[in-house]
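Appendix B. Chain record.
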Amino acid sequence: GEWQEKSLAELTSLITKGTTPQNFTESGVTYVKIEGFKDGYIDQSKCLFIDEKIHISELKRSILKEGDVLFAIAGATIGKCGLVTKEILPANTNQALAIIRLKKEAHIDFTLSILKSNIMLKYIQNNIAGGAQPNLNLQQIANFSFIIPTLPEQTKIANFLTTIDERINQLTHKK
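C-alpha cells predicted for this chain:
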C-alpha cells in the first residue's frame, strides 16, 4: 500500500506531560517516573504513589489511559519509551515524560518501534536543547514526522517485529 509522511501530531489525540505533586503516599494512585520503565513497559514496583484527590484535581491533565505511550523528554534517558497497560491504572506521571495518546489509525506497536528507532534517535540528536540537562519540548515531539503505511500494513509489520523481539529474548534467555 501507499506510505505517507505524517507527523506525530497527526496521529495523536493528545501530547502532553505531567506534573510533580508536592507529596507522595504509601499507596494509592500509581505515579510513573522514568525509573519505572523496564523493557518498554512500566514496572509498578518501581513507581511511587499519590493521593487520589490530587490525581483527579491538581494532576487531571496527566491522567494516564491504557495504550498511552510515555516518552522521556528530559535528561540522560531522553527517548526512552514505555507503554501504559491496564495493570498499573489508575496512574499519573511527571513533567519529564511526554504522554502520547494515539488515534485509531496508528498501531501502538508500530509507533513504539518507530519511537525506539534510529530515526527518532537522529531526530532527538538534531533537536535537543543543550544546557545542564538535554530536553525536547512537546512541540518538538508533535513535529516528529516519519513515513507510515496503512493500518493493516502497520499491524503486519508490528506483528513481525514482535515475533522477532520474542525470538531474540528467547535466545538471550537460553544463552
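Further analysis of this model is presented in Appendix C.
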